[in-house]
Here is the input.
Amino acid sequence: MYEDNDLVFCRVDGRYLDPDVVSQGFERLIVRSGQPRIRFHDLRHTHATLGLAAGIHPKVMQERLGHSSISVTLDLYSHAVPALGADAADRIAAVVDGF
Here is the structure.
């Protein structure tokens, strides 16, 4: 019987899969593909960075990443998206121009 544990990676029956098994499988695929070597965890960082760069609200990214607070998400990832600061300045300027 299938166990729905809300996992991204699991065994065929839905049970937990050892994270090392996933990482090792990913590494084998990277080597076979000839792509530059990256860690499996780097995919998580890329997801968070691209999400923030795409304008996804940091609270949504916090929930997707499972961080305990939004400050963790912002502390870890907002520096990777310098355009966020420029976007904030542009938005504030637009409000000021409207007065």
In short: The mean pLDDT is 89. Residues 69 and 97 are 34 Å apart (CA to CA).
